[in-house]
Design goal:
Layout: E1 5-8, E2 13-17, H1 28-36, E3 40-44, E4 57-59, H2 61-71, E5 77-82, H3 84-95, E6 100-106, H4 117-131, H5 135-146, H6 153-172, E7 178-180, E8 194-199, H7 204-214, E9 220-225, H8 232-235, H9 237-249
Parallel strand pairs: 2-3, 2-5, 4-7, 5-6, 6-8, 8-9
Antiparallel strand pairs: 1-3
Helix pairs in contact: 1-9, 2-3, 4-5, 5-6
Length: 250
C-alpha cells in the first residue's frame, strides 16, 4: 500500500504531517507559503485519513514515509507535525535522526502519554457517540474541542469535512486486520533544532507533553501562543506561516 501524498515546489524539502483530526488538506495555507519561500513541500495522508485507506496486515507507517521520500529523491529534510502527526514525526526523527534537519511540532501528541481528565472525558464521549451511530455528533464534538477562539466558521467547516471523512474511512475498515508497527521514540537521539508550539486554549495535555519533550530534546525551545487552540496553523495561518518560514530559515 502507498500513502497518498503530493509534492509542491523546489528547494530544501519540508515534510508536513497532519493532525489526526484532519488530513493533509489542513496544510493548504502552508503549502503556498513554504513553496514560495523556496522549499519543496511534501505532505502525506496518514493511514485512515484523506486518500490513504486502512491497510490489511502489518504496516510500518514511519518506514513507508521514509520509502516515499526515497522515491522522491529526498535524503534530508525538515519535518513539521501537528498533534497525531507530531507523534509520527517524533518516531521518524528518532529512527532516522540523520535525515532530519529541523523539527517543528505543533500541539504534538506523544506515544505513552497518559490522558488527563479532560482528554479522557473527550475520548469516552467520542467513543459513546460512535458506538451509538451518531457520527455527526462525534464530528461536532471534535470541532468544538480542537479549534480555539480564533477559528472562523469557514475553518470550522473545513475541519468538520476532514474529520467526517476520517471517521467514514475508519468505520468502513473496522473489520480490516490492520496491525500498525510502532516504535517508541527516543527524543535524546534527535539532534535537529526543534520548535515545540502549544496553544493557551488547548487541552492541558499538549502543553505538558511539550514541556516534557523540551527537557529531553537536546536543541528544543517551547513557544506558547496565547491566542491558539489545538490547530493554530488553521486558526491563524499567516502567523504560523511566518513562524515556520523563520524557523526553517534559521
Amino acid at each position: 500500500m502507498t500513502l497518498d501524498f503530493d509534492a509542491t515546489g523546489d528547494g530544501p524539502a519540508v515534510l508536513l504531517l497532519h493532525s489526526t483530526v484532519c488530513d493533509r488538506r489542513m496544510w493548504d495555507p502552508q503549502v503556498t507559503a513554504l513553496a514560495g519561500a523556496g522549499h519543496r513541500v511534501v505532505r502525506v495522508d496518514l493511514v485512515g485519513h484523506g486518500g490513504t485507506p486502512v491497510p490489511a496486515g502489518r504496516f510500518d507507517e514511519a518506514a513507508e514515509i521514509g520509502a516515499l521520500l526515497d522515491g522522491l529523491g529526498v535524503d534530508r529534510l525538515a519535518v513539521v507535525g501537528a498533534s497525531g502527526g507530531g507523534r509520527v514525526a517524533l518516531e521518524f526523527a528518532s529512527r532516522w535522526p540523520e535525515r532530519v534537519t529541523a523539527l517543528a511540532l505543533l500541539a504534538t501528541a506523544l506515544r505513552g502519554h497518559p490522558a488527563g481528565p479532560e482528554l479522557e472525558a473527550f475520548d469516552e464521549r467520542e467513543e459513546a457517540l460512535l458506538e451509538a451511530g451518531d457520527v455527526a455528533g462525534a464530528v461536532d464534538l471534535n470541532v468544538d474541542l480542537w479549534l480555539g477562539p480564533e477559528a472562523d466558521d469557514a475553518t470550522r467547516e473545513r475541519v468538520r469535512v476532514m474529520q467526517r471523512h476520517a471517521f467514514d474511512v475508519q468505520l468502513a475498515a473496522e473489520d480490516v486486520p490492520y496491525e500498525p508497527v510502532r516504535t517508541e521514540p527516543d527524543p535524546g537521539v534527535i539532534a535537529a533544532p526543534t520548535l515545540l508550539v502549544t496553544g493557551a486554549h488547548d487541552v492541558p495535555d499538549f502543553r505538558e507533553i511539550a514541556l516534557h519533550l523540551a527537557g529531553l530534546l537536546p536543541r528544543a525551545r517551547h513557544l506558547e501562543l496565547d491566542w491558539a487552540g489545538h490547530l493554530p496553523s488553521l486558526e491563524r495561518p499567516e502567523e504560523i506561516n511566518a513562524l515556520l518560514r523563520d524557523f526553517l530559515a534559521g
